[in-house]
């Protein structure tokens, strides 16, 4: 995600758990969005930055973790607000090197542990780890130059150990090492082959692209042409990331339409991307204001764009209407300053109510393939 780390980017007693749950707001009633024709969201997830601006450099006390994140597993009626959580970020070079220090063990942030994964999976929520982020772009470059195959093997081993999927967040806008990234993907897929059923969580491998086609152009072109084709998929899907600030509904739809239409005038051209092969992303924590996307579904962008998102038609790739769904940036504390999704600013009323309005399935079902 477009975040700079450090800049932008503990219930011991049952009574305590009950008290927090009782204090959560109930989900807003479903609006007309639930009746919109088309393909309802299958992916409805949140990137998660932990409590330290996306470093996950400390082991969490799970009582405190539940206090700050209970809204994700309970939107107020006992159902999760999301069906996917992506823990962000793993440093690719640290992973390749197998670094152990105060914040990492064998190259993995110490906060990204089995307890955190199980917190979500025990409620039917799929978990993935994101490798990269804009802060680690240079480290992606270095790791891909050094040994991309070993990096892919280590990512696959990490997925096996925790029972999670992996997201590629490589935000190199100038001359990305697509050959190295291909070697990374080949190594990962040798351990965890593509699984259209979605039954194997470790086989879920995705990539982040820009909000539209006009940034991360080379990566976008290569990924769309080689890894995201419905007939021969290599990656499960892409996430069209958030732009520099929250867009309007029309701006978000325009960005997402660029992926569907492609850019035939570019050299090489960016081919069309099937709507079923990507999600659109929105902010829930941005700046100093609590966003309606977090707290008020009726006035949120996930409501305003719902009809478009469910009905967006293919324009050269794919056969079914509608994006895969939504991703939200980001749970808990995505930056050292600004709003967080800690209590009282939790997101049952926005993200959670949206999951009710759209009847988001938990656990995530097999995804549309074309």
UniProtKB/TrEMBL annotation:
The keyword Signal applies. The keyword Signal applies. Residues 335-370 are annotated as: Disordered. It comes from Actinacidiphila guanduensis. The lineage of its organism: Bacteria, Bacillati, Actinomycetota, Actinomycetes, Kitasatosporales. This is GH18 domain-containing protein. Residues 1-32 form the signal peptide. Transmembrane segments: none annotated. Keywords: Signal.
């Amino acid at each position: 995600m477009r975040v700079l780390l450090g800049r932008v980017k503990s219930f011991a007693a049952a009574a305590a758990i009950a008290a927090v749950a009782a204090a959560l707001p109930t989900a807003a009633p479903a609006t007309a969005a639930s009746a919109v024709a088309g393909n309802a969201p299958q992916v409805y997830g949140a990137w998660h930055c932990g409590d330290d601006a996306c470093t996950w450099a400390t082991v969490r006390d799970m009582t405190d973790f539940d206090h700050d994140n209970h809204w994700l597993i309970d939107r107020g009626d006992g159902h999760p607000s999301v069906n996917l959580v992506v823990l962000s970020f793993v440093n690719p070079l640290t992973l390749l090197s197998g670094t152990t220090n105060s914040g990492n063990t064998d190259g993995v942030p110490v906060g990204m542990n089995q307890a955190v994964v199980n917190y979500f999976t025990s409620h039917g929520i799929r978990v993935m780890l994101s490798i990269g982020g804009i802060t680690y772009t240079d480290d992606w470059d270095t790791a891909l130059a050094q040994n991309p195959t070993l990096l892919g093997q280590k990512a696959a081993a990490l997925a096996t150990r925790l029972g999670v999927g992996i997201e590629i967040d490589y935000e190199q806008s100038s001359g990305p090492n697509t050959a190295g990234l291909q070697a990374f993907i080949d190594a990962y897929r040798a351990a965890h082959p593509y699984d259209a059923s979605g039954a194997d969580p470790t086989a879920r491998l995705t990539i982040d692209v820009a909000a539209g086609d006009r940034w991360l152009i080379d990566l976008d072109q290569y990924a769309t042409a080689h890894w995201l084709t419905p007939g021969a998929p290599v990656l499960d899907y892409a996430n069209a990331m958030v732009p520099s600030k929250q867009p309007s509904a029309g701006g978000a739809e325009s960005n997402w339409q660029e992926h569907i239409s492609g850019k035939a005038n570019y050299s090489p051209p960016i081919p069309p991307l099937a709507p079923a092969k990507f999600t659109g992303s929105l902010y829930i924590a941005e700046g100093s204001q609590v966003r309606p996307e977090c707290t008020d579904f009726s006035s949120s962008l996930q409501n305003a764009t719902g009809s478009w998102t469910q009905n967006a038609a293919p324009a050269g790739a794919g056969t079914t209407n509608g994006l895969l769904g939504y991703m939200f940036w980001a749970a808990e504390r995505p930056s050292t300053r600004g709003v967080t999704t800690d209590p009282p600013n939790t997101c049952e009323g926005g993200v959670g109510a949206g999951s009710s309005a759209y009847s988001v399935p938990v656990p995530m079902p097999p995804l549309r393939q074309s």
